[in-house]
Design goal:
This protein is mainly α. The chain has a three-stranded antiparallel sheet. A hairpin with a 2-residue loop joins strand 2 and strand 3. Helix 1 packs across helix 5 and helix 2 crosses helix 4. The longest helix has 21 residues. The chain is globular. The relative contact order is 0.14.
Length: 154
C-alpha cells in the first residue's frame, strides 16, 4: 500500500492541483481518494465500502481537518465523505458515474476495464512526470524557482 505515494503528486499536478496533501488544517483531495480507490480495487475482487475506508484510513496521510466529523453522517469523518462521493452513482464526477467502478450490489464495488485503463494511464503519467522531474534541466529550473522565492522582497 505504501507504493501509492509515488503517483499522487503527479496525478494532482496533471489535474492542476499541485497541493496534494496540505497542512494540518487542509484536507486530502477527491482525486487522491479516487486514485487510491482504483489502486485498492485493481486486483479485480469485490470490495465493500467499509473495507475500502478501513484500508484507505491506513494509507492516507489524514490531517485533523480530514478526521473532523462529517457534515451529513455523525458516525463518519470528513475524508470518508469523499469515499462516499467517489463511489456514488448519482455524482457525475464519481468513479461509478464515469464507468471506472461498477457497483455489484449495494455497498459492494469492483473495478472495470475502463478503471484499469485509467489507473494504468495515471501510473504511466506519474512515471514520466517523475523521470522528467529528475532530469538535470528540471533540477536547474527548480533551484532557480526556489532561489527566486527565497529572495527578499522590498
Amino acid at each position: 500500500m505504501s507504493g501509492f505515494g509515488h503517483v499522487k503528486a503527479a496525478i494532482l499536478a496533471k489535474e492542476g492541483k499541485n497541493d496534494m496533501i496540505h497542512d494540518n488544517q487542509r484536507r486530502v483531495t477527491e482525486p487522491l481518494i479516487q486514485h487510491d480507490i482504483l489502486r485498492l480495487l485493481a486486483g479485480g475482487q469485490v470490495w465493500t465500502n467499509a473495507r475500502i475506508k478501513r484500508e484507505l484510513g491506513n494509507v492516507l496521510p489524514l490531517s485533523a481537518a480530514d478526521r473532523a466529523t462529517a457534515n451529513c453522517r455523525a458516525n463518519e469523518e470528513k475524508w470518508e465523505e469523499l469515499v462516499n462521493n467517489a463511489l456514488s452513482p448519482s455524482r457525475s464526477n464519481s468513479l461509478t458515474a464515469r464507468g471506472f467502478v461498477e457497483t455489484v450490489e449495494w455497498g459492494h464495488h469492483r473495478i472495470t476495464d475502463a478503471g484499469r485503463k485509467k489507473l494504468e494511464d495515471d501510473d504511466t503519467f506519474a512515471a514520466g512526470f517523475h523521470k522528467a522531474m529528475a532530469s538535470p534541466e528540471a533540477e536547474r529550473f527548480l533551484r532557480k524557482l526556489k532561489d527566486h522565492h527565497n529572495r527578499p522582497s522590498f
